[in-house]
Each structure stands twice: as structure tokens, then as C-alpha cells.
Amino acid sequence: MNNKKKRVWKVAGFSILAVFILAGAGFAYEYYQLQPKNHFKSVPVVKSANNSKDAVVETVKKLDNPVFNILLIGSDERKGQNIGHSDSMMLVHVDLTKNEFQAVSIPRDTRVHLDGYGYTKLTSVQYIMQAKKGQKQGVEAAVNAVSELTGVPINYYVETNYWGFQSMVDAVGGIKMDVPFDVKLTHPWYPENVNKIVSTGTHSLDGKMVTEIVHERYSLQNGEYGRQQLQEEALKGIAKKALEPSNITKLPSLIKSIPDYVLATNMSTEDMLSLGMAVKDFDPTKQLTYHQLRGSGQKLYDDILKAKNDQIVLDPKEVKKVFTENFQS
């Protein structure tokens, strides 16, 4: 090989090496940036805009420590629709400094005040605002209603529906779920499951059956509160399965497929990847504390529906205690 050809190959070799070095540096930088302590130095805050009762905006909050709140919304929105009720809501407080998580379910029939409309059920806020303002605005109005009810800022929200929830369970290959009491499926999504009974105990379940179980409330002795217990156990099952060693390497691809079953979120793919890195050693039996909000069932006038209906009035002292002690940044 003559000197000219050698120089060409040497230049090409150095060029290829440079590409690998740059790519490696880029990956290292991205990996560094995705480390939770670096990535979550600032988080959004969803809240009402001052210039409009109906508007919701996001501001940015800088953090000394990665501590923030995520609202998980389960909607009854069906395929092909852009409107639905908030059928279940769970607020999760994430403290990545202590590796601790606090979670609380908020009853769907909780009485709340919607600016410009009056008092109604929490489940109706999303529906009415989506009908009047659009899909995104409806979700954000529901997020803001929860923030006003609890007195704590909400930084991120993720909304899915029952089909999306089913897809999530199937994406991790099904889960083991501890069912704390017998569950009779009186209002299943799939007709073949009508009146089927899922007995107390640990079950290996696919997404379809998990979805049926967490949807049930009419046959449960504790109604909505019983359903919250079922949803808590389902989320624990998903967390355990997703974070098994065999699934850890799949997390990036699972997170990238999230848009397939998430209806709305203000979390970016990078947010989710960073959070995934933070919880890779997460043990829900030790690091997750679950709270329930109790209230009294009352038949009250609904200003949106223009009629009386069954609503849950939460004890304001209990609400303040739970959120002041466990959900503050």
C-alpha cells in the first residue's frame, strides 16, 4: 500500500474513531443529565393562570432536592373519543433524596369547587372542561382541582384509560397481584366476565383481568375505598414486575412505547427515563406508604348537573394533616 493510500486509511480511521468518541461523549453526557439528581433540578408546576378562571398554565420550580408530586389519572374515555370522566386519581409524592414514595387515592365523587361553575364531583371536572375547552384543558382543569383540594402543587400528571392500563400490564408480561378480598365483577368491560368472582389471594393476571378488577366497585363492601385498595395492589404488582432484573433492560423501550397507552401527560421521555433510573431498586413493600382519605357520603346539589347526587365530603382537617405531613416539597 503506497503512502497516499495509507494516509487516506489513517484519516478515515481517525474520522471513525472521532465519531465513536463524540457518540460516546454524547451518550455519557445524556446519561449524566438523566441521573435523577441532575435531571430533576427543576420541575413544572401546573396551576390556574391569574388572568383567566378557566386557564391552566405551567410555571417552573427550581429544586435543591429532587422532590415532586405526580398525579395518576384513570379516565373512562373510550377509544376514538376526546372526552371522559376522571374515574380514578392517585397522587404520588416522590422523594428521590430519601428514595421514599407517598401515595393517596382521591375518591372520584369528592365534592370540589370549579371556578366559574360552582360545586360538583371531582369526576365531572375533566368531562365538563373537555366538552367546553378541549381534551388537554379538561385534564389540566382536573389536575388543578386536585391541587386546590389538597393544598399541594402538582408537578407532573399522567392520564391513561382502562385499555391503556391493560396495555401497560401486558407490556411487562402480566403481573402477580395480591387481591385482599373476593371481587365479583358486576360491571366488567368484557361481557364474558359478568359475575365472575376473583377470590382472595395472590393471582397471576394478564392486563385484561387486572383492568376488570381495578374497575369494580359496586360489589365491594367498601365501595370506592375498596377499589382504591385494588388499584394500590395493581400498581405494586406492575412496579415489582417492571423492575425485575429481566425487565430492567426493557425499560427504555417500554417508556418509548408509553404514548401508545397514555392519553395525556406533561412528562417527557427524558423525565420518564430519569424516573425509571431512580426507581430501579424500588421495593414497594418498603418504600411506598399508602394513605386513604375518608369522607362522609352526602346527597348534595351539583351546580353543573343542576340536580342533587351522591357526593363525598372529605374531612378538611384530615386532608390538611395528610398532605402537610407527607406531600410537601
Main attributes of the structure:
6-stranded mixed β-sheet; 28% strand; two-stranded antiparallel sheet; alpha+beta; 329 residues; single chain
Molecular structure report:
With 329 residues, the chain is of the alpha+beta class. The chain is built from 12 helices and 16 strands. The protein has helices at 3-34, 36-39, 122-133, 135-150, 162-171, 207-215, 223-242, 245-248, 251-256, 269-278, 284-287, 316-326, and strands at 42-48, 56-62, 67-75, 86-95, 100-106, 111-114, 118-121, 156-161, 175-179, 183-184, 197-198, 201-205, 264-265, 288-292, 295-302, 307-314. It has a 6-stranded mixed β-sheet with strand order 13-8-3-4-5-14, with helices on both faces. It has a two-stranded antiparallel sheet with strand order 1-2. The chain has a two-stranded antiparallel ribbon with strand order 6-7. A hairpin with a 3-residue loop joins β6 (111-114) and β7. α6 (207-215) runs antiparallel to α7. Mean pLDDT is 82; it is low at 5-30.
